[in-house]
Design a protein that fits this description.
The chain is α/β, with parallel strands linked by helices. 35% of the residues lie in helices and 25% in strands. It contains nine helices and 18 strands. Residues 282-295 have low confidence and may be disordered.
Length: 298
């Protein structure tokens, strides 16, 4: 029997500038096709890299959400016009109720990138965010299938064959997060400034009453950076990073994508990050319930 090769994955947390380089490396790696879910993009190094990628003969396809505040809707229209002008193909997600808030990209048959950040100057300089670059073939094929469904027919049935490593909202995010939290035996550690969903807060309280340590880094600074990214760490064995917050809007009304991480080196890196920025920022689930469930703010 052939020995399975370990999946190559790289997690990027800080310094923020390294997150931009991780994004640019994935864009540069594309030879034939680049898929990119883009909620916001104001960083011109990313735009310039996309233009160069188109000039290299790569088919660049971007999926944008049209659902936002009036001001953001105008900016998104301008972004769509800009990237179309450099030769990219732009799809505008047209589900009548769901906002497209996921942040991911796929270059050819890999690598893929799943992140909590937007492609903005602020997310590359001032926020606490997370980026995972993976060569996992199941993640890559699943993201491609999701992109191809959402860019053409978001009203269609949720695509088959999406790996359980991907937590995808609104279709299955609540169930997947509930299962992960219920499995915690020793500790639950969360980075999320919008923990506001009543069912999730109730579950966290139940786990705490059962003896599980529950620590939440909510609003406030993360090592000198603004809290923006979302991270869940269960028993120091499994982690989740991505765009999904434990708020009702995020769980039930947006297309979101997060990724489950079990690679020991990456989980250890997230654990060390949490410990390094914890201290005074720790909050109880009850305190976090008071956080405002607002739009994604960069």
């Amino acid at each position: 029997m052939a020995t399975a090769h370990p999946v190559t994955e790289q997690l990027t947390i800080m310094p923020p500038a390294e997150r931009r380089e991780a994004v640019l490396r994935v864009i540069r790696s594309a030879r034939k096709r680049l898929l990119m879910s883009m909620y916001r993009c104001t960083d011109y190094r990313v735009i310039d890299e996309l233009a160069e990628t188109v000039n290299r003969g790569v088919r660049v396809e971007l999926l944008l959400t049209p659902r936002a505040t009036a001001l953001e809707a105008r900016k998104l229209r301008e972004l769509g016009t800009l990237v179309e002008s450099i030769g990219a193909e732009v799809y505008r997600y047209h589900d009548p109720l769901v906002k497209y808030h996921a942040k991911y990209m796929v270059a050819d048959d890999g690598p893929a990138l799943v992140a909590s950040l937007n492609f903005t100057e602020k997310c590359f300089t001032a926020t606490g965010d997370f980026v995972l670059v993976t060569h996992d073939p199941e993640v890559i094929s699943s993201l491609k299938r999701l992109f191809e469904t959402d860019s053409v027919a978001p009203e269609a049935r949720f695509p088959d064959g999406i790996t359980e490593r991907l937590i995808v909202g609104p279709d299955r995010a609540r169930a997947q997060f509930t299962t992960l939290l219920e499995q915690a035996q020793k500790s639950i550690r969360i980075v999320d400034h919008k923990v506001a969903d009543p069912m999730m807060i109730s579950l966290l309280r139940e786990k705490k009453d059962a003896g599980v340590t529950v620590d939440i880094l909510g609003s406030g600074g993360l090592g000198g950076l603004r809290s923006h990214g979302k991270m869940l760490l269960i028993d120091d064995h499994v982690a989740v990073i991505g765009s999904i917050g434990l708020a009702s809007m995020s769980l039930d009304f947006r297309r979101e994508v997060a990724i489950v991480i079990r690679k020991p080196e990456c989980v250890r890196q997230l654990s060390e990050f949490f410990e390094s920025v914890a201290g005074a920022q720790k909050q109880s689930p009850a305190a976090s319930a008071e956080a405002e469930d607002s739009e994604d703010e960069d």
